[in-house]
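Below is a filled-in request sheet from our internal design queue. Each sheet records the structural input a requester submitted and the sequence that came back. We keep these sheets so that new team members can see what a complete request looks like end to end.

REQUESTER: design group, bay 2
PRIORITY: normal
MODE: inverse folding
CHAIN LENGTH: 228
BACKBONE (tokenized):
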């Protein structure tokens, strides 16, 4: 039986072990309870901040002169194929989505949507990029060129005509991206070798495997013959 003074029973011959009583100033808060409560408080604060941020429907000024956009649509001015377009876009909208959905330029294909196949290739200031991995707002102030805009007056670009002559397309999904990559090569190197063409389309995936005809068409458009 416990000692009336609060000692715990002990083995014969040993002094009783005292019982540690709770400090009334701690109000029953343990170290474990304090840490759990602090974690819940931090999580609750973060959640509240997220809700408040989600409620901001317009651009808001932030520290250091940076402007926060979203999450709702904001006006975005894009220069595409020589024309200015103002569209309302959520900041998360990719350039590929803006071109296809908001501007109706469906020549730009979204295939993998992961930057793997390059079927969505367009030019930013004549530099080929994967538009599925580029935010539309990052194209503001730059010149965007799509497959619809590489040749004026709705006539075929010499490379497009060469693709037709050499039957350098099969299912057609990769074709716009291939043409944009190869046309960019011809812009910077009018007399490429086959090695140059292979390098230019090294990021473009053709599931039909029509690479030899793509190489031949590009070299034909450049006025050269095939060489390894």
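RETURNED SEQUENCE:
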């Amino acid at each position: 039986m416990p000692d009336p003074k609060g000692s715990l029973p002990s083995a014969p011959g040993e002094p009783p072990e005292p019982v540690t009583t709770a400090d009334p100033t701690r109000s029953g808060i343990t170290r474990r309870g304090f840490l759990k409560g602090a974690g819940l408080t931090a999580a609750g604060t973060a959640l509240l901040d997220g809700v408040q941020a989600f409620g901001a429907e317009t651009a808001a000024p932030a520290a250091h002169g940076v402007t926060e956009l979203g999450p709702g649509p904001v006006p975005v001015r894009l220069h595409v194929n020589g024309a200015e377009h103002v569209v309302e876009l959520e900041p998360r909208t990719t350039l590929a989505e803006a071109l296809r959905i908001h501007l109706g330029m469906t020549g730009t294909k979204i295939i993998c949507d992961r930057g793997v196949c390059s079927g969505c290739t367009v030019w930013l200031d004549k530099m080929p990029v994967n538009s599925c991995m580029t935010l539309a707002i990052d194209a503001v102030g730059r010149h965007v060129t799509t497959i619809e805009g590489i040749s004026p007056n709705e006539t075929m670009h010499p490379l497009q005509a060469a693709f037709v002559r050499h039957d350098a397309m099969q299912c057609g999904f990769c074709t716009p991206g291939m043409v944009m990559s190869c046309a960019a090569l011809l812009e910077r190197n009018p007399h490429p070798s086959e090695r140059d063409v292979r390098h230019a389309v090294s990021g473009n995936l053709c599931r039909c495997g029509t690479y030899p005809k793509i190489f031949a068409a590009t070299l034909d458009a450049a006025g050269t013959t095939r060489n390894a």
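SHEET NOTES:
- The first helix runs from residue 31 to 54.
- The domain at 150-228 is CATH 1.10.150.120 (DNA polymerase; domain 1).
FILED BY: M.R.
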